[in-house]
Amino acid sequence: METEFVLNTILYILPAYISIYWVFNITGDFKHGRFLWDCFTRLMSTLNAIVCCVMVYYELNNKKLLFIMERTGDFSTYSLLLFASYLFIDGTLQLPDLITKPSFNLILSITHHFVGGYGIYLIGSERKGLFLGVYFAATEISTPLLNLCWYLRKTNTYEVYTRKLFFIFYILFIMSRILTIPILLYYLNYNAYLISELEPIQEMMVYYGSYTLVLLNTVWFLAITKKILS
After folding, report:
1. Closest by alpha carbon to 119, among 203, 2, 188?
2. What span, in angstroms and rounded, lies between the C-alpha atoms of 209 and 112?
3. pLDDT attached to residue 25
4. Is residue 145 very low, low, confident or very high in pLDDT (cuts 50, 70, 90)?
5. How large is the greatest C-alpha to C-alpha distance in the chain, in angstroms?
6. Is the pLDDT reported for residue 157 higher than 80?
7. In the prediction, which pLDDT does 22 show?
8. Which pLDDT belongs to residue 98?
9. Out of 20-34, 80-94, 97-111, least confident range
10. I need a surface site. Which of 14, 24, 121, 205 has the fewest CB within 10 A?
11. Nearest Cα to 136, choosing from 228, 191, 55, 222?
């Protein structure tokens, strides 16, 4: 049922994404169309982040996040499945850019989308590992502010505030993605025995999916820090 939910979500939304991509990137003025496409994808990532934040808030207010392989409830399960569907769709739509204008940052982004999407899908479909699902969802807290900073910078709107807002984003990024790394590693160590009883692909995704996220967040942290200091 959970797998069918993800597939149906992708089948319904991906054609709309492709149509919008075609209109903005292939027809008309490419430069203006590209800006509109970027605005659309940023808007969708903001909506996804809001869903993630609502789910995190719900879990923090309804139960204690114990360091066990806790089972997910229906609300969190389908929130995570929506999150996974979004990551698969957005990652797929970045592939044309990877082919035409490959870059290290784009490779990181696509890796994050597909590895993260599959890992979150496993959490939702197996209904195990609530803490991991909440942890990964919580990393999206800084996304809306990042997208707002991007828009203000691109449109030269409220330029005097943009750098201050970006610094606030930077603090949120550190709090949600860097300072929480020891908690994630402790969780993996605390549940090592239970994780070892999972199916091989699930065990691999728990560890390597988590380590991939840590690596990507560390690389992005260094890049953002460099930007802040420049």
Report:
1. 203
2. 9
3. 77
4. very high
5. 57
6. no
7. 87
8. 87
9. 20-34
10. 14
11. 55
Smallest CA-to-CA distance from 76 within 103, 91, 57 is with: 57
CB 82 within 8 A of CB 51: yes
Two tokens, residue 175? 């709090």
Contact 11, 87 (CB under 8 A): no
The pLDDT value recorded for residue 30 is 66
Strand segments (E) across the chain: none
Name the DSSP letter for residue 129. Answer: -
Contacts of 2 (CB under 8 A, 6+ apart): 77, 81, 124, 125, 127
- 72 touches 133 (CB < 8 A): yes
Q: Where are the domains of the chain?
A: 2-229
Q: Write down the mean pLDDT value for the chain.
A: 88
- Got the DSSP string for 121-190? HHHHHHT--HHHHHHHHHGGGGHHHHHHHHHHHHHT-SHHHHHHHHHHHHHHHIIIIITTHHHHHHHHHH
Q: End-to-end CA distance of the chain: give it in Å, rounded.
A: 49
- Residue type at position 110: I
Q: Which residues of 209-220 are buried (b: 16+ CB within 10 A; e: fewer)?
A: bbebbbebbeeb
| Cα 14 to Cα 86: distance, rounded to the nearest angstrom | 9
**Amino acid identity, position 153:** R
Round to whole Å and give the CA distance between 79 and 53: 10
Q: Nearest 5°: CA angle at 225, between 215 and 44?
A: 70
How sure is the predictor about 40, in pLDDT bands with cuts at 50, 70 and 90? Answer: very high
